[in-house]
Amino acid sequence: MPIYEVNHKKPVIGKGTWVAPTAQIIGDVTIGQNCYIGFGAIIRADLGPITIGDQTLVEENTVIHNGTKTDIGNQVIIGHMVMIHDAIIHDHCLIGMKSMICDNAVINTNSVIAEQSLVRTGQVIPSGKIYAGSPAQFVKKVQPHHKKSFDEGIQTYMDLIKKYHTTFKEI
After folding, report:
1. Kind of pairing, strands 63-65 and 83-85?
2. Where are the alpha helices (DSSP H) in the chain?
3. Less Cβ around it within 10 Å: N or C end of the chain?
4. Which residues pair with 101 in a beta bridge?
5. Which residues pair with 4 in a beta bridge?
6. If you write DSSP's letter for every residue of 42-67 in order, what string do you get?
7. Is the Cβ–Cβ distance between 109 and 89 less than 8 Å?
8. Residue 116, helix vs strand vs coil
9. Using an 8 Å Cβ cutoff, are 61 and 82 in contact?
């Protein structure tokens, strides 16, 4: 797995985290325990720190970068091809595929950003809400069936991480 030091800052990767061999983790990055970092993901912290909590999923071809600081909480699902720049994403959030989270945006706990949404610079998403569109706008409150589906998604990846640690090999 390509892990790079820059400006005397080295990534720190938590126990049990699986990083795809084509992912790139650069600089002042801290990744929690039991995370999944997918193929082609780029996490580049050459201008400020990036922190990712435990059991967070960074799916394929996602790009995370910043100018000052990016914090991503525990049990966050970041879909394929998401771009996150200088944002805060609290625990238990879902960021849908191909979404963009811009500078100084805040996604509060238990929120959902639908696929292909744009969370604009400085936009704050309240807890327990679903936002969609470009720019992202309120759609509805998160319901128990959304939470159940989210929990199932996290568990699917926790199982997948174990399989990758024990059976993934280049042939």
Report:
1. parallel
2. 144-167
3. C
4. 84, 119
5. 26
6. EEEEEEEEEEE-TT-EE-TT-EEE-S
7. no
8. coil
9. no
Q: Which amino acid is at 138?
A: F
Q: What is the pLDDT of residues 53-63, one digit of tens each?
A: 999 999 999 99
What confidence tens digit (pLDDT) does each residue in 19-69 have? 999 999 999 999 999 999 999 999 999 999 999 999 999 999 999 999 899
Cβ atoms of 27 and 12 within 8 Å: the answer is: no
- Residue 80 in contact with residue 96, Cβ under 8 Å? no
Structure tokens at 69: 């600081």
Q: In whole angstroms, give the CA distance from residue 31 to residue 144.
A: 29
Q: Are 131 and 108 in contact (CB under 8 A)?
A: no
Reported residue count of the chain is 171
Contact between residue 101 and residue 119 where contact means Cβ atoms under 8 Å apart: yes
The gap from C-alpha 56 to its chain's centroid, in whole angstroms, comes to 6
Q: Which of 117, 80, 119 is nearest to 97 (CA)?
A: 80
Report the DSSP pairing between strands 112-113 and 124-125. Answer: unpaired
